[in-house]
Amino acid sequence: MKLILVDGFNLLSRYYFATERRRAQDPEVTVKGLLRKVDSWTTDFSHIAFFWDGTRESTHRYAMYPEYKATRNGLPEPLFEDYLKLRAALDERGILQSELTGYEADDLMGAVATAFPGESYLYSSDRDLLQLLSPNVFQIMPKKGEEQLVNEASFELMYGVKPYQFVDVKALQGDSSDNIPGVRGIGPKTATILIQHYDTIETLYMHVQNETLEAPHQKYAKKLDGHEEIALLSKRLSQIDIHAPVNTDWEAYRFGSHLF
């Protein structure tokens, strides 16, 4: 069995902005193009599901850190209209859609992908999902007219760490798009070097506190010292909740199953 899990807003936004100039001639251009993509998946995947974000204010991340994703703007009205049309069209095709108050699409995708008894393919350009990669979980990343399939091995070649460590790297360097603070003065290169050597933020700070950083890394001690709390908060904000409550009736994910 092969399941494709689609980050709904990520895909819809990409199609919306790619087709924005053609809307005057055809107001349905975004949804029609996106549905052609969805229909193409039915030949390669037995199971298909779309996942949508709950409201930012309802999530546990907002409760921990109200500034989380505070820089994001609301949906343009035409995009919201396309969202409603797309959801209706997916229902007509018998494609399962999942949304749960308190959770983001990433959480639901992570919980489903890690529980599914076959191969799971995450469809999104969102790099946060890369932390989920495993022997049975892959990510398809759309990029400027092409798609990149990422697995554990190719991820490690690209980023120099294991998928589970990606969240630690992000927590150290921060992420302005999600408004995750990170540790001031620690950029992607330094964050990667530190996690390569110390595996996790928790182990790294154990060495910081005990003053046992290896000689090449002692130059980072001042930047790290006193910022353990914000680093751990950033990790909790970045970590996908694979224990989110999700539907595990796998027949419900089979394409067209709930039309009958």
From TrEMBL:
SUPFAM superfamilies referenced in this protein's UniProt entry, alphabetically: 5' to 3' exonuclease, C-terminal subdomain (SSF47807), PIN domain-like (SSF88723)
Organism domain of life: Bacteria
GO function terms (MF aspect): exonuclease activity
Keywords, ordered alphabetically: DNA-binding, Exonuclease, Hydrolase, Nuclease
Domain 5'-3' exonuclease span(s) in chain numbering: 1-256
PANTHER family assigned: 5'-3' EXONUCLEASE FAMILY PROTEIN, FLAP ENDONUCLEASE XNI
Function: 5'-3' exonuclease acting preferentially on double-stranded DNA.
Protein name: 5'-3' exonuclease
Organism expressing this protein natively: Exiguobacterium profundum
